Amino acid sequence: MDKKNFALDKKNFILLGIGMVIIIIGFLLMTGPGSTETTFEADIFSARRIKVAPFICFFGFIFMIYGILYKPFNKHHNTNN
User: What is the pLDDT of residue 5?
Assistant: First the structure.
């Protein structure tokens, strides 16, 4: 198979994988104990869960967009083909 037929390169998939890992880390940071009907858990309003984790997820999504749009520079590009 010819590599020119693929829309994404190997480096694109690596960048997408890194972005996915960043998003998963962000979602894991959002987890924690929740409040029930009988007890109130103040941790649901922690800075980690409402500020840091969503920012990390957002950065992961932006990184994935970059991974899709990234076009690797090819030094051996031949314009005669």
Answer: 73
